[in-house]
Amino acid sequence: MQPELHVSPNIYMRPFPRFDRPTVIGYIGLENLKYARRISNDRVCLDLNLHIDKVIRKPDDLDVKLKDLTQFLLEHERRLNFPLETSLDNAKFFCYRGLMTCVACTPYENQEPWKIVAILFKGNIYLCARDTAEKLHRKLNMTERDKQFTSWGYKFEQYLLSDEPDSEPNPDVPVDENEEFSLVFTTKLNGHTIVYGAEMDGIRCDKEAVAKPPAELGPEAIVNYLSTKEFIELKTNRHIENNRQETSFRRFKSKKWWCQSFLAGVDTILCGYRNDDGIVEELKTWQIKDLIKISQRFWNPDVCFNFLDTFLIYVKRCLAREIKKKHGEKALNNLQELPMISLMFEWTPGMSVQVAQNYSHHDDPVLMPWFTDNYGKVAK
């Protein structure tokens, strides 16, 4: 029986853990890179319903698992040249930023349960969020209004972002919600090395002239280019008109906004405040440090990142117990020779994090054969 991980915020009320500013090591979907030319506090009138009847939505059954990230790792294996780790202490974590945000916010979450699969493969740990029954139910029963809310966020980005650093945005075309640009970061959180993908909205080019990335010079030059650019996060929010809405924003949304941006090294958020009809009437910039100031009564970033650190320790400990049980103590220092090992971690508000019984990656494969059959073959 695996131990449980307690979640209560007061357990994690200690100084912020050591966290290195994320370093860019790659990118996914360079053709979809966008630029933000005008960033200001302003009164506007942006109709988020423009061409909404022609929007190209993501497939309803979309289950990306770790496809984009593992494809990136495979394509750039020789360039990245990650060492072959043999012990869990040095195992890298591979995941998406959304999963890290979800885990970090857990001590203050009171509605959304989660499931996370951890897979130990060739000395590294892959973390992937899986749909809970509640989330699956919502996916299958999305109303037209739900889809509209989702599309409004994408349309807002189209009003603010352009395809070229020196061109204007063009909202007069339907949005393709499948177009994404992501950065791949690495960072250290205390003793953990984490490699993660994060979808990015756009490069700021309101402060100085920005050129396009030197695509013809190859990945290293592009990574160097992206590392020197300041990105901005775009959000939409309903107008805040009363104390209840203000409290809700400070307690819930500000936490997620801060965590997402902090993990991607983003300092500024541009929010479009809209009415119920999908008309953005005001633009307001937020510095992410100010989100902490207005929300001190409701959440604490120290707690969020101490819990994230503790969760990663917990994952390693649970995997270690599993290895010892199935392969013996000596196997802990010979990870490269082990078959794939997977555990499912589950959490429900008000409960502790637990390891699901009888989970098998054969029933729900997260790492695809095209990855597992080929990754790790590059000579070190």
| Weakly predicted, low-confidence segments | none
**Share in helix:** 25-40%
Provide the spatial order of strands within the biggest beta sheet. 1-8-9-4-6-5-14-15
Can you count the helices? 10
The figure for the number of domains is 1
Assembly level:
single chain
pLDDT averaged over residues: 94
The profile of the biggest β sheet is: 8 strands, mixed
Q: What distance separates the N and C termini? A: 38 Å
Shape: globular
Strand content: 15-25%
Sequence-ordered SSE layout with sheet pairings:
Elements: E1 23-28, E2 35-36, E3 42-47, H1 67-75, H2 77-80, E4 93-96, H3 97-104, E5 114-121, E6 124-130, H4 133-140, H5 144-160, E7 161-162, E8 182-189, E9 192-199, E10 202-204, H6 219-227, E11 231-238, H7 243-263, E12 268-274, E13 279-287, H8 288-294, H9 301-327, E14 341-347, E15 354-355, H10 369-372
Parallel strand pairs: 2-10, 4-6, 4-9, 11-12
Antiparallel strand pairs: 1-8, 2-7, 3-13, 5-6, 5-14, 8-9, 10-11, 12-13, 14-15
Helix pairs in contact: 3-7, 7-8
Family: Belongs to the DXO/Dom3Z family.
Pfam family, one: RAI1
InterPro entries: RAI1, RAI1-like_fam
